[in-house]
# Entry
Amino acid sequence: MTDPRPLGTARRVAGPGGLPAVELSLPNGARAVVCLHGAHVVSYVPEAGAEELLYLSPRSEFRRGIAIRGGVPVIFPQFAGLGPLPKHGFARTLEWELADSWSHAPGESAGARLTLRDTPDTRGVWPHAFALHYEVRLTQSALQLALLLENVGDGPLRFTGALHSYLRVADVRQAVVEGLEGVRYIDKTAGRTTVVDEERAVAFDGEVDRIYLDAPSALRVVDSAAAGRTTVRVESAGFPDVVVWNPGPEKAAALADLGADEYTKMLCVEAALVGKPRELSPGESWNGSQTIMRGDAGVR
# Structure
C-alpha cells in the first residue's frame, strides 16, 4: 500500500538575486535554500511559523565571482588570509554542480549534494586536483552540512577551511556562546596572541574574532532577547576548531556589504580546521560536518 503521508521536496528555484538554487522543504514547514553559487546555504527555517536561523545581509551582492555575506559560506582551501590565496579561498565564489537531490521517508528529510572540482583556473592559484562534495540535508529537527574532500591528484595537498555560519540573533550584545570555557584560542583582535578562555560564556561588547583550538564538538548560542527562541545548538565532527566572530560597530561600518548597524543581528559560530592544516596524500579523503538546530539541550 502506498504511504499517504507527504514527502519532503528538493526543487530548483531562483535564489536571492535570481541565483540558481535548490530549495529543500518538509511537511512540517522546515525549509532550507542552497545556491549553486558557492554551494552557499542562504536560509534555514526549522518549522512552519519559526524564525529564520541564518543571517543574510540585505546589502550582500548576489552575482558570480562575489562572496555572499551571510548564510553559510564554504571556506576552502584556505581560511581567511592565512596563506597565499585570496581571503577564504575560492570555493565560496565559484559555481558548483548539483550532483543529486532527494527526499527520504515520508516527511523525514530532504537533501542535495553539490560538487566542486579543480579547473585550470583553480590550478592556476592552487596546483592540486581535487573533488569537494557538499551534502546539505534538512531534517525535522536540524540542518546538517557535510563536506567530503578527495585528493584525486598525484601529489599531496594541504588545506584549511570552515563552514562560516552566520546565525541570526535579536541583539548580539545580549547573546552569548556557551561551551568554550577552558579552551585555548587565538585572539585576532590582540595581535594573534594565544590565551585560555576563563569565562563561562563568550559575550559580545565589541569586536570578537577568535579561533578556538581543539574545541568541543557541541556549543550553544543563547539569544536572550529573542522571543520564542532562546538557544541554537551548533555541533560539528571532523573540524577540530571553532571560530567565533562578530565585527563590532567599527569594522561593520567599514564593510560595504554589511552596514553599520547590521552587526547587532548576526553572530558567526564556525566549524573550522585552522590551527593545524590538514594534508592528504594521493587517494586520501577527509570529511567534516556541522549541524545547526534549535533547542535547550545542554552542551555535551
